[in-house]
Amino acid sequence: MIVSVASGKGGTGKTTVATSLAMVLADRAQLIDCDVEEPNCHVLMKPVITSSESVGLPVPVVDSQKCTVCGTCGEVCRFSAILPIGKQVLTFPELCHGCGGCSLLCPEKAITEQPRVLGVIETGKCGPVQFVHGLLKIGEAMSPPLIRAVKAKINPERIAILDAPPGASCPVINTVTGSDYIIMVTEPTPFGFHDLKIAVEAVRELGIPLGVVINRAGVGDESVQEYCREEGMPILAEIPHDRRIAEGYARGNVLVATAPEYRKIFGDMIARIGDVVASREPVRREARL
Amino acid sequence: MKELVIISGKGGTGKTTITAAFACLAREKVLADCDVDAADLHILVHPEVFSEEEFRGGCVALIDQEKCIRCGLCRDACRFGAISDDFVVHPTACEGCAVCFHVCPESAVALEEPLNGRWFISETRFGPMVHAALVPGAENSGKLVALVRNQARVLAKQRGKSLILVDGAPGVGCPVISSITGADHVVIVTEPTLSGLHDLERAVQLVKGFGIPASVILNKADIQPEVADRIEGFAREAGTELVGRILYDEEVIRAMVSKRSIVEQGDSVASRCIRASWDRLSEAALQ
Lengths: 289, 287
Fold this sequence. Notes:
The structure holds 2 protein chains of 2 kinds.
Chain A: E1 2-6, H1 14-25, E2 29-33, H2 41-45, E3 48-62, H3 72-76, E4 82-85, E5 88-91, H4 101-105, E6 111-126, E7 129-136, H5 144-151, E8 159-163, H6 170-176, E9 181-186, H7 190-204, E10 210-217, H8 223-231, E11 235-240, H9 243-250, H10 255-258, H11 262-288
Parallel strand pairs in A: 1-8, 1-9, 2-7, 2-8, 9-10, 10-11
Antiparallel strand pairs in A: 3-6, 4-5, 6-7
Chain B: E1 2-7, H1 15-25, E2 29-33, H2 41-45, E3 48-55, E4 60-63, H3 73-77, H4 99-103, E5 109-112, E6 117-124, E7 127-134, H5 141-159, E8 163-167, H6 174-180, E9 185-190, H7 194-209, E10 214-218, H8 225-238, E11 241-245, H9 251-257, H10 269-286
Parallel strand pairs in B: 1-8, 1-9, 2-7, 2-8, 9-10, 10-11
Antiparallel strand pairs in B: 3-6, 4-5, 6-7
């Protein structure tokens, strides 16, 4: 089972929820941090990293001996990453999306590909929990290919908990696609409410069941609760605003370590999610056939 | 004309709250909200839109089922797994590279330019504003950010404004890079948590890589004194001036709930801290 933890607005408590679920699941969990721009799970989980590999995107290299500067590559490329100018072809690897169109369609077979490093993937363990995260190279704009490479590490033998990046654009979609369930973490404020609506809309067409965790409950207003009622989205948990929890997080402690009484809440949450996913299994099997 | 961009690395540290407060304090400026996939500044500044345009930033493939002979060439060539077993393109997985369009022997693939978002020019009580809304789940946020910044520059020139105040996106990827490229000064808002410190380090590295002068604002500065000290130490060593320490104040959320800037909410601890930060930042960045 794959469970994504997403949010719309940043800083609402995605990592708090993801790490707590992983801790409670223990040897049944694989925690995967897909927020490759600013991953934080390792700050709280302090994993022992056992392997590290760089992730590259295939970008074109032009063999000037074979190239006739016919211009096909420049016409094919939608990202302005390869450009015939005068008697040579220039490449702009940082703009390349790695689609392979130029090398595939070059009539002279003059284009090969070599990887351009986007970042690294580190894997390891935090006690019984298996751990994976990606780190986007600083200055690198293209996070989706790295997110997809991180997700290729999903272990089907375990319950994979995916910590998603904030927002509602392509990095989030790349993370949650293929999940069995999405937990949306929000806070009951106008910003939290607004960004929750956008995030729900962004993932809606994927048809994945959703539940909401309200963090810092009690600080703002009731609009998030009303919205969940109207949309028929279950509220999986409400975590009240509590200075002790905030302090624990600030020091880099997982919520269920700071406040062990939450272990049951997260245990119940994952059981409830398991039931929803199991009840949908016949539907999913049919959809696959 | 100066362009001042407010980013954070970590989300939820208070970028938009601080941008809205600065909008209240700064004179002769244009506002630009470049957090296009989860824009929130409009909630506090209530823009009255007078110009609205569509944004189409890329393409998505569409297979004509009548023409398709199910040869499978497109599926073999697609590196994004965007074409299903029954030859339907998943729009969310499609990268818009058009390789399928080129390899199809039956010309069964069409390229469509979907609506990726909208952008707006508005009036607010703090002055003119350029903002945008990416269609939820859409791509090309970096292009839309660049468009918003360009329009803000045009507007600033037209109206004779000397400052563009930009609310950026969280993270260090595409929309953030697009928000800061070529800016005059970047402010990084952080909080005294270990995650905040970690994300600040990456954000500072990014901004320095672009050679842009940066300042740091520590929000909720008193919630964890030890980590706050570490962040101040880091900012000093990195050569980024800590221009403000904003103390934790529940009035900030009350102001957000009443949908106005903390500075407009009347006198409060946070409001005083933000005024002091603005004074110091103006000296550091706008002189």
